[in-house]
Design goal:
Strand content: under 5%
Number of helices: 14
Structural class: mainly alpha
Shape: globular
Oligomer: single chain
Radius of gyration: 27 Å
Helix content: over 70%
Length: 359
């Protein structure tokens, strides 16, 4: 008996030790692997349909699934990204000279400032404000230029990570069911608990991506149109930025349209400023409050507060893709605690002195 326990202890030690070394080796690729697992799970219905068409040829079905995703998702996204990058460069070229001109010849802008009630107090710090504005504009332009320039240096790394993502996703599509079944067989959980965790994982992943994409597209499109009709240049760029920022609950697109309202008011375009303020606060702002709980909370059965902290915490911990991973971790956290409460219900009732519920 002691020999058996010693062997089990040694085996457990080797398992933990080698697993730690293995994860240390692949830590640089973990995000690409996790994203490949998520997107392959979402693309599995498409793979299953191709598998039926091609009579069980898994490699061909996985290849056709990847090609379909490339044509439907990645190529349009790349085209949109190119347009947005072009407008970003254009904005940088326009904004910096404009601010510098206001510093040298602040007449028109100064006339707008004179209409403000607190202009006498503002006049005391006028030179400092324009100096800081010039520094901010110059630094912003330099940062944008450096970011675009550094892309050439990071392009090889980005392409390599994209290759890792696509290569891993192909094998997850082809062999994912067998890999998942083998992994679940090692977990000391009942089949019902395994299915429960797996169903929660898939439902939260689908709902989070679907809800975030829908909310972002609607908010960005409507707010971008509002800025376009208000006369703000490069509305497609700002609309795209608002779509990306919409992953942040509550704040999101307001980080763009509120400064736009301030800019319109400061330049004397009061009707446009009031129009953008009313439209974005009443219509665009309420889209997040209405659609996000419906698209995410309904499918995941998660409280809205848990979605909020899961999203923000996920972004803080995992970076840009935390808006997907954060709610998944929060949902699994909630599910595991529910399983704990059900498994140890009798013991917990005993501790509290309650009578166990009748079956």
């Amino acid at each position: 008996m002691n020999s058996i326990k010693a062997n089990q202890f040694i085996l457990l030690f080797l398992l933990l030790f080698l697993s730690a070394i293995f994860f240390a080796m692949i830590r640089y690729f973990l995000m690409a692997i996790v994203l490949a697992a998520l997107f392959s799970a979402l693309a599995m219905p498409v793979f299953n349909r191709f598998e039926r068409w091609f009579r069980g040829r898994k490699s061909l079905s996985a290849s056709m699934t990847m090609l379909t995703l490339l044509l439907i998702v990645f190529l349009p996204f790349a085209a949109l990204l190119g347009i947005v990058a072009k407008q970003a460069i254009r904005i940088s070229r326009i904004a910096v000279p404009w601010v510098q001109q206001q510093i040298l010849e602040p007449g028109a802008f100064d006339q707008q400032l004179r209409t403000l009630s607190f202009y006498p107090e503002l006049q005391l710090y006028r030179s400092d404000i324009f100096q800081k504005a010039g520094e901010v504009a110059s630094n912003t332009g330099s940062m944008l230029f450096n970011t675009i320039s550094s892309f050439t240096y990071s392009a090889v790394n980005d392409l390599f990570m994209l290759f890792i993502f696509l290569y891993t996703m192909f094998f997850f599509l082809r062999d994912g069911k067998q890999l998942l079944a083998q992994f679940l067989s090692y977990l000391p959980l009942t089949r019902s608990d395994q299915n429960r965790l797996l169903d929660k994982f898939l439902s939260v992943t689908r709902a989070t991506i679907k809800g975030t994409m829908v909310v972002g597209a609607v908010q960005g499109s409507l707010a971008g149109l509002a800025l376009h009709f208000a006369g703000i240049d490069s509305a497609l760029f700002w609309g795209t930025i608002m779509s990306v920022l919409s992953v942040l609950p509550v704040l999101g697109s307001a980080l763009v349209w509120i400064p736009a309202v301030i800019y319109l008011a400061a330049t004397g375009q009061y009707p446009q400023a009031i129009g953008v303020l009313l439209f974005c606060s009443i219509v665009v702002g309420q889209i997040d409050n209405i659609l996000r709980p419906i698209l995410i909370g309904r499918d995941t059965q998660m409280p809205e507060l848990l979605i909020f902290f899961g999203t923000l915490g996920g972004i803080g911990l995992f970076g840009v893709f935390g808006f997907i991973l954060g709610p998944i971790v929060a949902a699994l956290f909630m599910t595991v605690w529910e399983m704990y409460g059900e498994t140890f219900s009798e013991y917990l009732s005993e501790i509290k002195g309650d009578k166990p519920a009748e079956p």
